[in-house]
Amino acid sequence: MTEFFKRGVRWVAKSLTNSILEYSNFSINLKVLKFCHIWHIFVDKSIDLQLELLSTLRKKKPIGSIRLTSTGVLLYLTNDVVYQISCGKHSQSALNKNFESYTYLKKSNYSCVVDYLLVQHGLQNIIYYRVERLFPVSDVRRSAKTLFETLEGNFTQDQFANLNLDSAYNFLKKYCELTDDELKKLRPVQEKGYVGPMHGDFHSQNIMQTKNGHPVLIDLDRFLMSGSQVIDRIHFNITQYESRQKYWVKLLIGLIGAKQKSKSNFSTNSYLAYFCFRVSAEISSQVKPQQVYINRLKFLSKRLVDKVSQLEKTDSKFKDE
């Protein structure tokens, strides 16, 4: 069975599962969830305890809907709260890290960006979470601007000093077959910029608002208290335009060295730091790198190297003149 066919089967199974969870009764939902491990790579083979917990929660709050996320988190959504139940090691780790980051921010000077309730519970040997029901923001860009201003850190001489990008370099060398010279072109150098709280996955779906209309951040499993804040800004801009047809690396290559200047433009060095950071984040979220992902990244990383080389030649020629 080819990888492409497997991906197609998973996509169909995911679509059917989501439809069943949305429109079927609770007993049918439980039966469907029992077999999700067949197609969902982040769901364990046995989730009987999780389903028992879900049944217990439903008895307390009978009116609610069920969702299963792409990372293997089982959600039970009621009118006022959302329950988060892990169905595998990957999602458990992410939920734990999210709660740690939330707790840290709650005690810091940046508590307003997590101005909602998130509580950890334990039942039937399972750790699960209860989070206050949040709502989509009415103006994503304005909310993002508010959050960026609130989280602004300190201006430093090297904004990338705290970024550990070794996993990205190793992956690009091993799987994408980049040479040491090619990797050198993709390594960000020292650059001045702001260092402070960094979300790590700052996009529109991770910006929500409370019932009072206050913008907040969710999904804090990649959060760093002292990170390069330009990474979040670039990620937010790119995710506004990327899709299945517009892969993020293609967008990044188009932005590097663009002649049109605007407030949303960043240095080539910052874009390279973002490229390596995102590769590192993506491979850490995969059980095993898929060949389709490797092939696409291999082709585009070579194009990125070529683009950087062209810019270096242009800059060298301009200096000589």
Give an overview in words.
This protein has 321 residues and is of the alpha+beta class. It has 2 domains: 3-133; 140-320. The protein is built from 11 helices and 11 strands. It has helices at residues 3-23, 26-34, 48-60, 89-106, 140-151, 166-174, 180-186, 229-239, 248-255, 268-284, 291-320, and strands at residues 65-68, 73-77, 81-86, 118-123, 126-132, 135-136, 154-156, 193-198, 207-209, 215-217, 224-228. Strands 1-2-3-5-4 form a 5-stranded antiparallel β-sheet, sandwiched between helices. A hairpin with a 2-residue loop joins β4 (118-123) and β5 (126-132). The model has no long low-confidence stretch (mean pLDDT 91).
Question: How are the SSEs placed, and which strands pair?
Answer:
Elements: H1 3-23, H2 26-34, H3 48-60, E1 65-68, E2 73-77, E3 81-86, H4 89-106, E4 118-123, E5 126-132, E6 135-136, H5 140-151, E7 154-156, H6 166-174, H7 180-186, E8 193-198, E9 207-209, E10 215-217, E11 224-228, H8 229-239, H9 248-255, H10 268-284, H11 291-320
Antiparallel strand pairs: 1-2, 2-3, 3-5, 4-5, 6-9, 7-8, 8-11, 9-10
